[in-house]
Write a structure and sequence with these properties.
alpha+beta, Ribosomal Protein S5, domain 2, Thiol Ester Dehydrase, Chain A, 2 domains, 6-stranded antiparallel sheet, about 20% helix, about 35% strand
C-alpha cells in the first residue's frame, strides 16, 4: 500500500484573486500524516483553519467556496487539483486574503510551488477510495458518472448551452500526466457572460492575463492556446480539484458531460459517504487530536527509561513527535487520576500546576533524549509567563508542545503550550537544569 505524502519545505506565491480582485500571499506548508488539506487564514484573528472537505463547501457558483462559520474562502479548486494531481495528501495552505492567487488561470504556478518544495514520504499508509459499483449525479444538462476502474481516469465532454466549442478529452490521471496534459489548461468564459459576472461581484481580478475569453468564433487570449482541447482539459482540472474534497485518492473512471462545480461537489459528497461506509469503524475518545492518528515517536516504555518520575507523578504517556528543538507529547487525562478525588469531587478539573509539570517533563524529555545527556536528570527550576486559559477535564487528550529557546551549559529554557484539540488550555516558559543522576 502506498504511503501518504506531504511537501518537504514551505513554498510561497503572490498575486490577485480571480473573483475578489484582492492581493494575496499564499504559502504551502508541510503537514503531519492524516491532516488532509487545510486552508489557514493568517489575516484573521486566531489564524482560523478550514478543512478542505465536502462538508466545508458553501457555494459552487462559478467556483468552489469553503466556509467555516463566518469565514469564507473562494476558488479553491485549482489548488486542490494541484495537490491531488501531484499526489500530496497532507498540507497547510496559508493565505492573507479570502481567495488564492489566480496566477495565469491554470494550475501551473501551484505545480511549480510543489516541485520547488519537494515531496516527502510519510509513515502512514494512503487509503484510496475504490469504487466497486456505478454511481451518478445529474443536474440540468450536467451529468457525472463513476465506474469501477483499475486506475483513475477522467473522460469529459464540454460545451456551452448552444453546443459551441464542443470538446472531448480522456486521460488516466498520474502525477506525470496531470502536470503535462492538464495543469497548464487555463480558465475561460464566454464574452456574453462577463456583464452578468461583473454585476454579481465576480471576476474583479480577471483579465486576459489569467483567463481565455470566447467571443462568437473568436478566442481572445494573450498567448496561443496551450492545448487543442484546452477548454475541456480545464474542466477536467476543475473535476479533479472538486473531487479531491472527498478526502482520498479515487480509483475509478469518472465520465463527465458538461460538468459544473455543483455536480462535481455532489459527486464528491457521494464518494465521501462511500468512503465512510467502507472504512473500518474506529472508536475514538472525545476531543481526540489529529496527531493520535499517527504512530508514536516513543511509547511509555521509552519515556520511563528517560524520566525518573513514576506514578502518580509521571505526566507524559507518549511522545508524538520529536525534532532537534521541538517535542510534542500526549497526556491522557482519565477520571482515575488520584488528584480528581479532591480537585474537585463534584467538578473534576486537572490542576494547572500539573499541566505546568507536564510541560517541564516534556522539556526534560526533549533534552535528555540526546545521546550526550543520557543518564542525567532534568530539575525544574522556574516558570515565567504562566497562563491557564481553559479547564482540562477527564476524557481530554492533553497535547504538550515544547520549543527549546535557550540552552547554555547545564541550564535550558523552553516555551511550552498545553492544548486540547486546537484550544490552548495553558502556556508558560519553563527553565530547568541538567545534573548527573
Amino acid at each position: 500500500m502506498p504511503q501518504q505524502q506531504t511537501i518537504s519545505e514551505p513554498s510561497s506565491f503572490s498575486g490577485v484573486g480571480l473573483h475578489s480582485g484582492n492581493k494575496v500571499n499564499m504559502t504551502f506548508l508541510p503537514a503531519p500524516p492524516n491532516t488532509g488539506i487545510r486552508f489557514r487564514r493568517i489575516d484573521l484573528d486566531g489564524n482560523p483553519e478550514i478543512p478542505a472537505t465536502v462538508e466545508s463547501v458553501s457555494d459552487t457558483t462559478r467556483s468552489t467556496t469553503l466556509s467555516r462559520g463566518n469565514i469564507r474562502l473562494h476558488t479553491v479548486e485549482h489548488v486542490m487539483a494541484s495537490f491531488r494531481g501531484c499526489g500530496i495528501d497532507n498540507a497547510i495552505v496559508e493565505l492573507d486574503a479570502n481567495e488564492p492567487p489566480i496566477a495565469d488561470g491554470s494550475a501551473r504556478a501551484y505545480c511549480r510551488m510543489i516541485k520547488n518544495s519537494g515531496i516527502t514520504l510519510q509513515v502512514e499508509n494512503r487509503r484510496s477510495l475504490v469504487v466497486t459499483e456505478p454511481l451518478s449525479v445529474s443536474r440540468d444538462q450536467s451529468i457525472l458518472s463513476v465506474l469501477p476502474y483499475e486506475g483513475f481516469r477522467i473522460s469529459c465532454t464540454s460545451s456551452d448551452d448552444q453546443g459551441r466549442l464542443t470538446q472531448f478529452y480522456s486521460l488516466d490521471i498520474t502525477p506525470d500526466s496531470w502536470e503535462r496534459e492538464i495543469s497548464h489548461a487555463r480558465t475561460f468564459c464566454f464574452f456574453e457572460e462577463i456583464e452578468q459576472l461583473i454585476e454579481n461581484g465576480l471576476i474583479r481580478g480577471g483579465s486576459l492575463e489569467n483567463a481565455v475569453i470566447i467571443r462568437d468564433d473568436a478566442v481572445l487570449t494573450n498567448e496561443p492556446l496551450r492545448y487543442r482541447e484546452e477548454f475541456v482539459r480545464h474542466k477536467i482540472l476543475d473535476i479533479l480539484g472538486d473531487l479531491a474534497l472527498a478526502g482520498h485518492p479515487i480509483q475509478a473512471h469518472v465520465i463527465a458531460i458538461r460538468p459544473c462545480h455543483r455536480t462535481n461537489w455532489e459527486l464528491a459528497c457521494k464518494l465521501a459517504r462511500l468512503s465512510r461506509k467502507t472504512a473500518a469503524p474506529v472508536r475514538l475518545p472525545t476531543r481526540l487530536p489529529k496527531e493520535l492518528a499517527g504512530p508514536a515517536a516513543a511509547d511509555i516504555d521509552r519515556i520511563m527509561k528517560i524520566l525518573p518520575h513514576r506514578y502518580p507523578f509521571l505526566m507524559i504517556d507518549r511522545i508524538l513527535k520529536i525534532e532537534e528543538t521541538t517535542i510534542t507529547c500526549l497526556k491522557n487525562v482519565t477520571v482515575n487520576e488520584p488528584y480528581f478525588q479532591g480537585h474537585f469531587p463534584e467538578q473534576p478539573i486537572m490542576p494547572g500546576v500539573l499541566q505546568l509539570e507536564a510541560m517541564a517533563q516534556a522539556a526534560g524529555l526533549l533534552t535528555l533524549n540526546k545521546e550526550e545527556h543520557w543518564g542525567k536528570i532534568a530539575y525544574f527550576l522556574s516558570a515565567e509567563n504562566v497562563k491557564w486559559r481553559k479547564p482540562v477535564r477527564p476524557g481530554d487528550a492533553l497535547i504538550v508542545e515544547i520549543e527549546l529557546i535557550k540552552f547554555r551549559g547545564k541550564v535550558s529554557k523552553a516555551r511550552g503550550r498545553c492544548r486540547v484539540g486546537e484550544d490552548t488550555v495553558s502556556e508558560a516558559v519553563v527553565m530547568f537544569m541538567l545534573t548527573d543522576a
